[in-house]
């Protein structure tokens, strides 16, 4: 059948015409229903229900093809970054106020306090604390106070001056003796000058067994264990920060030299004990 025959053929009548009209109406109704469903879905997602243009697959990116195949475009959720403002540094205290604050703290401490701790408490730069403490110590010395500020055990603390020790001792002791025994002082001196040292070495130097005295010194917190000797496995002992604090020393290097207190024939005595 040619195109001319189709064009010149009269329209269908009767049942066939009704059937074609019904099929056309059904197709239009399906297209309208699909468009309404798409519009409703777009409305629920908060998107405008505009007609989409038909784009060829070759010209459409893969992400867009995947979005349109599902019928719903993908949404990228961008997280919000919370910006926290940096805390403002504390203002520098005037020299007079900084001096007074340091003196107030040093009056209540029961052990030497380091410059770093003072800087953290006062919220001031650490480089200001050291020079100010040196200035305070020099001022006490120049004014001739009965106390002084000096370094001890890695920190700073107020101490009474040695020239007033007899008066302080009379007030504190009040007839009570809290001193170490002669054996304890000798043992403590050996540990201080020979540390780290073992018990057997201490006993050899003193010539007597020192186990009981060492236990006493450990109990009082003046010496402590600091490992073991590699060869024998014996415990090693050293002095503590409390020892430095009691003597008012910053390090053990400040201990007085032993040479002036040794006898003249010390070498002969050492040879005799070998």
Structural notes for this entry:
The chain has 274 residues and is mainly alpha-helical. 51% of the residues lie in helices and 9% in strands. The protein has a three-stranded antiparallel sheet with strand order 3-5-4. Strand 4 (223-228) and strand 5 (235-239) form a beta hairpin. The N and C termini lie far apart (136 Å). The relative contact order is 0.06.
Short summary of the structure?
The protein is mainly α.
What features would you highlight for this structure?
extended; two-stranded antiparallel ribbon; single chain; about 50% helix; about 270 residues
- What is the percentage of strand-forming residues? 5-15%
Terminus-to-terminus distance: 136 Å
Return the structural class.
mainly alpha
How many helices does DSSP assign? 12
Overall radius of gyration: 47 Å
Biggest sheet descriptor: 3 strands, antiparallel
SSE string, helix = H, strand = E?
HHHHHHEEHHEHHEEHH
The whole-number mean of residue pLDDT values reads 76
Uncertain runs = 1-8, 37-49, 53-60
Share of helix, binned = 40-55%
Q: What is the 3D form? A: extended
Total number of beta strands: 5
What is the spatial order of strands in the main beta sheet?
3-5-4
Question: Secondary-structure blueprint of this entry?
Answer:
Elements: H1 3-8, H2 15-44, H3 62-70, H4 95-108, H5 115-122, H6 126-143, E1 147-152, E2 155-160, H7 165-173, H8 182-194, E3 197-198, H9 199-206, H10 211-219, E4 223-228, E5 235-239, H11 241-247, H12 266-273
Antiparallel strand pairs: 1-2, 3-5, 4-5
Helix pairs in contact: 5-6, 8-10
